[in-house]
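Summary of Year 1 activities. Much of the first year was spent building the evaluation harness for sequence design. The harness presents a backbone, in tokenized form, and records the residue chosen at every position. We chose the following record to illustrate the format because it has been used consistently in internal testing since the harness was completed.
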């Protein structure tokens, strides 16, 4: 957390410096930007709105590696065109390729979003942002809303979350990645963790002081959409921290036994409890329940508070945990231990590859979605581990235990992910075999139900159609359980649904004891499927968490909670447990669908082409930890321990983004050694 504290201080200091507001002068010649990020010469914003906007813009560099300034004047003069005026301000302010400026003339009703063509957002995307995100707000005289929209749209474009955003794929300076997405673009997206930390600290302190993000005259200072963005990012960051902590705790327990790690396990359990509550609140928002704006706002703020509390709980034990593991002091011994586990994982790679090939020859592709690229992913993790082990060995030889510890943690985490990816293939194979057996058994039970329905009274004619549908589903399932493209999980799900329907239809012909016995008979099959699907989703998300967003994690948390309820009530309320187990299956399926969508948009292409393992490390979430790693072994809001590169990108304030680091075009015609230019056809009247 030491580097995290430094980052937090940097961000909060930036906020404090800009809270004083902008000059009240009314000149419309190109202005100087000054120390703040908002220049409001026409009082377009209320004081509370301006403070809120300053906070949003101050967090933007850490969120996405870019800066945005916003200028409001009555009209543009010298020059009078919006493009020329905005670019002149950018030139005078020395803005670089990753630094943007939104200029708005409220009386003249013209505007321009200035950006360098060498930056991470290309000209076409800037024009789209103007037309789709800014013009609607400006036409309503929603000056603050337009600025918030610009910040969100630019951030989405850089991280690849926006529809049609360039994400830096145009003329930006990032190096290529295997899937065609620049590495710089992905790295900038990962920097969102830093923004989450800063925002959570600010909001929680405010809440404890007795207020909830108020604005002028009690109006909300932060739009609901922005609170939703922040709470989603906080959920991802906290979930990653807990996942990393769980892994680190496993390493410590294996090395020292359960007793020395007991206190840390208790801390982790409490942090997990906080996060589970936060995910439950997010699921409540996602369930299409009608909510008032105040209720929605309160839920988002509570999510932020819970995530901050979970982080603080883990952070409080960081130094003690570091002392327990003592990687800096015992680096040579740790190096040997990790090298051995690496060899074990490497030996398992061929077996996992062969096992997946066997599964592919027997089952349909959708049944293998959770593991279809696991061997290739494991290979990238091992490549990254090899790099980090070599770096650790060099650091040990140089007597640099601190640097060695950072590389050792990175290697240890990468090897653990490789082993998990390999093990998941065997787990899925076993689960598919179990599903085949359960489906065959359920077919036999449903045959009996269909026969019972034929002999049962059916005065209203409601039973016969259900029996016919059950017979049809039995035939479909039999086909799904034969051949070389078998689909046992799909067959079992459909059979369980048919079982519920016919049990309901036959309920009148059965007494309470018979219904309970039938529920118990079916429950274990439903629980087995729920366990398998929740486990598969957990493994998939944990090993690809660098790409997976809040939606998939929220659905997985709900699946896990539903499964826990089903397990707890299985013996006393089997019918209720059956319903919860079915929900666990449903939610885990939605979690997988969302997670695969996130991973598909990550742009890793063929992991086998990633010889350095860098893209695999990014996908596995290991680079997220390293971006906040300041060279010590502290947790930095990443869980017990740290990982990755020492020092990330050389430290220093993130307040200026990457603007100075890549030269940059600082004028309309370029001017910088690597810059492009700010001229394009855009902006205009609103």
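For this record, the design step produced the sequence shown next.
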């Amino acid at each position: 957390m030491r580097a995290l504290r430094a980052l937090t201080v940097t961000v909060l200091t930036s906020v404090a410096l800009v809270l004083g507001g902008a000059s009240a002068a009314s000149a419309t010649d190109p202005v100087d930007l000054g120390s703040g990020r908002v220049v409001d010469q026409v009082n377009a914003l209320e004081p509370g709105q301006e403070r809120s906007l300053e906070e949003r813009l101050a967090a933007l560099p850490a969120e996405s590696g870019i800066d945005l300034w916003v200028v409001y004047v009555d009209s543009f003069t010298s020059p009078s065109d919006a493009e020329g005026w905005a670019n002149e301000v950018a030139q005078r302010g020395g803005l670089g390729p990753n630094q943007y400026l939104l200029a708005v003339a409220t009386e003249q009703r013209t505007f321009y979003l200035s950006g360098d063509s060498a930056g991470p957002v290309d000209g076409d995307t800037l024009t789209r942002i103007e037309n789709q995100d800014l013009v609607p707000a400006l036409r309503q005289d929603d000056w603050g809303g337009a600025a918030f929209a610009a910040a969100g749209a630019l951030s989405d474009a850089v991280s690849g979350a926006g529809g049609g955003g360039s994400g830096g794929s145009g003329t930006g300076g990032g190096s290529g990645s295997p899937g065609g997405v620049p590495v710089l673009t992905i790295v900038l997206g990962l920097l969102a963790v830093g923004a989450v930390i800063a925002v959570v600290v600010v909001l929680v302190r405010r809440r404890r002081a007795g207020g909830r993000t108020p604005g002028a005259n009690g109006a909300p200072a932060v739009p609901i959409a922005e609170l939703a963005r922040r709470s989603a990012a906080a959920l991802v960051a906290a979930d990653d921290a807990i996942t990393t902590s769980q892994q680190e705790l496993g390493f410590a327990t294996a090395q020292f036994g359960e007793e020395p790690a007991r206190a840390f396990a208790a801390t982790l359990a409490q942090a997990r409890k906080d996060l589970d509550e936060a995910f439950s609140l997010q699921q409540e928002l996602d369930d299409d329940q009608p909510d008032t704006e105040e209720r929605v706002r309160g839920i988002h703020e509570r999510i932020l508070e819970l995530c901050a509390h979970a982080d603080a709980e883990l952070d409080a034990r960081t130094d003690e945990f570091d002392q327990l593991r003592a990687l800096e002091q015992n680096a040579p011994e740790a190096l040997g231990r990790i090298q051995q586990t690496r060899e074990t994982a490497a030996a398992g790679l061929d077996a996992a590859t062969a096992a997946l090939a066997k599964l592919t020859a027997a089952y349909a592709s959708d049944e293998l979605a959770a593991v279809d690229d696991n061997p290739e992913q494991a290979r990238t993790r091992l490549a990254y581990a090899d790099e980090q082990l070599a770096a650790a060995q060099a650091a040990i030889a140089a007597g640099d235990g601190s640097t060695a510890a950072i590389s050792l943690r990175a290697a240890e985490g990468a090897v653990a992910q490789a082993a998990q990816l390999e093990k998941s293939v065997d787990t899925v194979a076993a689960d598919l075999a179990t599903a085949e057996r359960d489906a065959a058994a359920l077919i036999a039970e449903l045959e009996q139900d269909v026969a019972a329905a034929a002999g049962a009274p059916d005065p209203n004619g409601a039973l016969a159609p259900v029996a016919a549908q059950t017979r049809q589903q039995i035939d479909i399932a039999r086909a799904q359980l034969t051949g070389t493209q078998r689909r046992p999980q799909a067959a079992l799900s459909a059979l369980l649904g048919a079982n519920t329907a016919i049990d309901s239809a036959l309920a009148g012909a059965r007494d309470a004891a018979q219904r309970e016995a039938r529920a118990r008979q079916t429950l274990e099959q439903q629980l087995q499927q729920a366990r398998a699907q929740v486990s598969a989703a957990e493994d998939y998300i944990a090993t690809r968490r660098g790409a997976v967003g809040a939606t998939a994690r929220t659905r997985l948390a709900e699946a896990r909670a539903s499964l826990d309820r089903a397990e707890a009530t299985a013996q006393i309320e089997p019918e209720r447990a059956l319903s919860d187990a079915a929900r666990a299956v449903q939610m885990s399926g939605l979690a997988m669908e969302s997670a695969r969508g996130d991973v598909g948009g990550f742009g890793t292409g063929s992991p086998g082409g990633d010889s350095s393992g860098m893209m695999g490390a990014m996908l596995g979430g290991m680079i997220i930890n390293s971006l906040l790693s300041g060279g010590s072994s502290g947790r930095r809001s990443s869980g017990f321990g740290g990982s990755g590169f020492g020092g990330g990108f050389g430290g220093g304030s993130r307040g200026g983004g990457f603007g100075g680091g890549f030269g940059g075009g600082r004028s309309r015609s370029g001017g910088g050694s690597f810059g492009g230019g700010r001229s394009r056809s855009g902006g205009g009247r609103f």
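The two ends are 46 Å apart (CA to CA). Quantitative recovery figures across the full test set are reported in Table 2.
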